[in-house]
Each structure stands twice: as C-alpha cells, then as structure tokens.
Amino acid sequence: MEELEEICLAALEQLPEGVVIINDKDRIVFINQKAAEIRRIQATERIGKPVLNCHPPESRERVQRALQFIKKNPDRPFVRIVHDKEKDLFYENAYACLQYGQNRSIGSVVISRDITEKRRLEKEIASRMKSLEENNQELTRRLESLFTSAMTSMANILEAKDPYTNGHSTRVSKISVKIAEQIVGISPELKEIELASELHDIGKVGVREEILNKRGPLNDEEREHMMRHPVIGGDINRKEPRNPVQS
Ligand SMILES: [Fe+2]
Predict the structure, then answer these.
(1) What's the half-sphere exposure (Cβ side, CA atoms, 13 Å) at 75?
(2) What is the pLDDT of residues 17-63, one digit of tens each?
(3) How far apart are CA 192 and CA 131, in angstroms?
(4) In angstroms, rounded to a whole number, what is the distance separating the alpha carbons of residues 82 and 66?
(5) How far is the CA of 243 from the centre of ligand 1 (A)?
(6) What angle do CA 27, 29, 32 make, to 5 degrees?
(7) I need a surface site. Which of 34, 37, 44, 190 has the fewest CB within 10 A?
(8) From CA 131, how far away is CA 138, in angstroms rounded?
(9) Residue 173 C-alpha to ligand 1 middle, in angstroms?
(10) What is the whole-number distance in angstroms between the Cα of residue 146 and the centre of ligand 1?
(11) Inter-residue long-range contacts of 169-173, CB under 8 Å, 24+ positions, other chains counted
(12) Alpha helices, H only, 41-167
C-alpha cells in the first residue's frame, strides 16, 4: 500500500498538467509542481488553506460556482477556460468531484491544462479556412463572370448577324421571367432564368444557315428545326452536364 501511495504521489507530482486536490471543506490537500507554477504560489504554504485563496479576488466567485456545480452534479465534470493575462497563456481547468465508495463525496480535483498552443493552432486553421473560402468564392465569381461575358458576346454576334431578331433575346428574357415568377414565385432561380433566356439565341449555331438566313416565311419542317434553338442554347449554357436519362 505504501508503495502504491508513493507511486501515485510521484505520478501526480510529475504530471504535465496542474493538479490541485481539495477536501470536502474546500481546503487544499495537494498541489503539484505544475499547478503551483501556473498559479504562481508556493505549494507548501497553501496546504490546508481554503482553495479560493489561491485565486485572485475577481475569479473567486466563478471558482466557487464551479465547485458548487460539481458537488451537485458529481457525474459531470465542469470545465472553465482561464486566461493568464500576465503571461498571455490559456488554461483549461477541469473540476471533478472525488467520490469514495458509493455517492460519498470526499473532495474535488482541479486539473489545469495549458491549451495556448492548441488555441493558436485552432485560430490559425480557422483563419486559413476563411481565407480559402474567400478565395474560392472570388474564383467562382470570376469564372461565372467570364462565362457570362463569353456567352453574352456570342449571343450579341449572333443577334448582329440576324437583323430581324433585334431585341428578341431581351424580349424572350422578360417573358421567361414573368412565366417563371408564376411557377416558382420570387426565387434566386429567376436570376438564372433571366440570364439563360438572354443567352438562349446562342443555340442558333445549331440551326442550318439556309433556314437562319431565309427571306420570307418558314415551312413546317423549317419552323420545327428553328424552334430547337432554345433547347440547343440551353445545352450550351448548361453549367453541369445533362443527365443521361434526360437526353
Ligand atoms: Fe430566339
């Protein structure tokens, strides 16, 4: 038993975490080297003294609340993050109730772990993630702008080739948005529908030249062929490949 006590005391003393053990009267019975270093106190001077005296006046109320919490909830450790302003270090203080046998509280233990480096790494990762997300959004915005610009230029070229359709794309776009409003209501999709309709004439690249440039009315077959241009335009403007089941 003596050997076990010696080993346990040595282990507690040499732990990299600070350990303070308190009896059921909230008086200190053990402080290891690390806990004394963290709290900048002499361990030998504090044994038998109230634990609250180890803390600056401004944090005593919070410590008191933590001790009361674990006494009322012995199965639930209480964790507090403490900032040592003088050294700019952060500690995670875990308060746990010590029980002997069944439901007999004999005291409490406070284990302090230096989490300064962990917090720094977490902040650095969060900052890098935010930066990556912002870069990603900017790239997406530029790609979309480039895509829209290229498609608009193509549509303008096609419209310039066909003087009979002057303003046609804009009229189609306005009508499409009105129809879509009736179907989906006010929705972010309307912006995409407006753009897609504005660019639909790009599908005329798939229409036979002799039909596109025909003077005079189209026959049924020619009209049917001509009516495919919004479908072709939709396929060209589609950002994602068409589902094979739909094609
Ligand atoms: Fe058209």
Answers:
(1) 2
(2) 999 999 999 999 999 999 999 988 888 889 999 998 878 888 889 88
(3) 27
(4) 13
(5) 24
(6) 125
(7) 44
(8) 11
(9) 10
(10) 22
(11) 169/197, 169/198, 169/199, 169/200, 169/201, 170/198, 172/197, 172/198, 172/200, 172/201, 172/230, 173/197, 173/198
(12) 43-46, 57-72, 116-161
Gap from CA of 184 to ligand 1 centroid (Å): 23
**Distance in Å, CA 201 to ligand 1 centroid:** 5
Q: 3-class SS at 241? A: coil
Residue type, 146: L
Candidates 152, 225, 140, 161; CA nearest to 194 is 152
Residue 234: CB partners within 8 Å, gap ≥ 6?
Answer: 196, 200, 203
From the CA of 191, how far away is ligand 1's center (Å)?
18
Give the span between the Cα atoms of 47 and 22, in whole angstroms.
9
pLDDT of residue 209: 87
pLDDT, one tens digit per residue, over 51-81 is 988 788 888 898 899 999 998 888 888 999 9
**Cα–ligand 1 centroid distance for 145 (angstroms):** 22
Q: Measured in angstroms, how far is the CA atom of residue 213 from the centroid of ligand 1? A: 14
Domains, the chain, ordered by start: 2-119 (3.30.450.20), 135-237 (1.10.3210.10)
